[in-house]
From TrEMBL:
Membrane topology recorded in Swiss-Prot or TrEMBL: Multi-pass membrane protein
SUPFAM superfamilies assigned to the protein according to its UniProt record, in alphabetical order: Magnesium transport protein CorA, transmembrane region (SSF144083)
Keyword Transmembrane helix belongs to the record: yes
Keywords noted in UniProt: Membrane, Transmembrane, Transmembrane helix
Organism: Aspergillus ibericus CBS 121593
GO cellular component: plasma membrane
GO MF entries: cobalt ion binding; cobalt ion transmembrane transporter activity; magnesium ion binding; magnesium ion transmembrane transporter activity
Main location, first listed in the record: membrane
Keyword check for Flavoprotein: no
One protein family per Pfam: CorA
Subcellular compartments: Cell membrane
Name of this protein: Uncharacterized protein
């Protein structure tokens, strides 16, 4: 491995052996054996971008959510040019792995293929795949199974199924943890709701990438059907088998996309439920505060009239003659005014708040509003 690039060469036994050669030594026009090249985008951007057509540049240079393209070297009559009898194709996928609401990682795996129909040789670039070369090689086709170039795309898509499944179940476990956390709303962490919105963003991205991946596989199926007429050397059985395999992968992605949408609905329901539980808790606290304020108001109402009367007449009920404070005989007037005034105040308050207000019955009219004919 040099500069993040590993090259494997196909041997006669059907095995792939690692080579110490450099891409700079690769001559596509004189290819003797098929090659598989594992690389990281940054390695290809720095030194080897001349291997790829301009349209492929966004796959290794830009953040995209998926791509597919294929091209054959044809003349003006749509016949394959014999002196440059090769074809290129690529497919790209996007996956988001989420460890927790704040920690996540994007990967953008892609496969780029140069295929020579006459010799059945090929150069395969596998870029930014989460699996290591040792894990990927047993999942890829052998030289014997490469009479159809789209076999490689189907195999590459098959390796992506496990990654999409891993991404989905990682999100599902996070959503399930939030569902368990709200069982006791009084113990919710202050970051509970911000985390919910972060999780929702991740689920939206999951829906998006799964939908694009499904569309990519559908495009592969359509393009493979168009290529049957160009490469008559490939048997119909090979085309049909690979088409069914691509459709199977597309069906798997569709199932994951449906479950991801269901997960988004679960999360949306969880957000609504969380808000409702917190609102109920705040409502209960508000009721308690209202009861306390009502108690304070009633107590104040009981003492307010007496305070008012004492302030008004207090100086007239005491005699300070001869240097002594003596209560006069008219002190009973204070009680005679305070008690009725207090009761009257409470009665008015009770009538104002508790006496039912009669509303006129709809459609019922008072008879006295109409003039009586003599």
């Amino acid at each position: 491995m040099s500069d993040g690039i590993t090259i494997y060469q196909e041997e006669g036994t059907g095995q792939w052996l690692e080579q110490r050669a450099s891409l700079l030594d690769l001559n596509i026009e004189r290819l003797e054996k098929s090659l598989i090249i594992f690389a990281k985008p940054e390695s290809l951007r720095l030194q080897y971008s001349h291997f790829f057509p301009e349209a492929f540049a966004p796959v290794i240079c830009t953040d995209i959510n998926g791509s597919f393209f294929c091209d054959d070297v044809l003349d003006d009559n749509d016949n394959l040019i014999k002196h440059a009898n090769w074809a290129v194709s690529w497919s790209c996928f996007k996956i988001k792995f989420v460890d927790n609401p704040r920690i996540y990682n994007w990967v953008q795996p892609a496969i780029f293929m140069i295929w020579f129909p006459d010799t059945l040789k090929h150069v395969i670039f596998i870029i930014d795949h989460p699996l290591s070369p040792g894990e990927l090689l047993p999942l890829l086709p052998t030289q014997r199974a490469t009479r159809n170039p789209y076999t490689w795309h189907a195999a590459f898509a098959g390796t992506m199924m496990g990654q999409y499944d891993k991404s989905f179940w990682g999100l599902r476990n996070i959503v399930r943890d939030t569902e368990k956390a709200r069982d006791n709303p009084n113990d919710l962490d202050p970051g509970f709701f911000p985390n919910l919105h972060d999780i929702a963003r991740h689920v939206f991205h999951s829906n998006e990438t799964l939908e694009i991946a499904e569309h990519t596989l559908q495009s592969l199926v359509k393009e493979q059907c168009r290529c049957r007429e160009l490469y008559s050397s490939v048997s119909k059985g090979d085309w049909l088998h690979n088409e069914r395999l691509l459709l199977f992968r597309a069906k798997q992605l569709h199932s994951l996309k449906t479950r991801s949408r269901s997960l988004a609905e679960r999360l949306h329901n969880e957000i609504n439920l969380g808000f409702n539980l917190v609102s109920q808790r705040f409502g209960s606290d508000a009721k308690s505060d209202n009861a306390m304020m009502k108690t304070v108001a009633i107590v104040s109402m009981v003492y307010l009239p007496g305070t008012f009367v004492s302030g008004l007449f207090g100086t007239n009920f005491f005699d300070y003659s001869d240097g002594k404070e003596v209560m006069t005989d008219s002190f009973w007037i204070y009680w005679a005014i305070t008690i009725p005034l207090t009761l009257l105040t409470m009665l008015i308050w009770a009538c104002w708040h508790y006496y039912p207000k009669k509303k006129p019955t709809p459609g019922k009219k008072r008879m006295d509003t109409f003039p009586v004919k003599p």
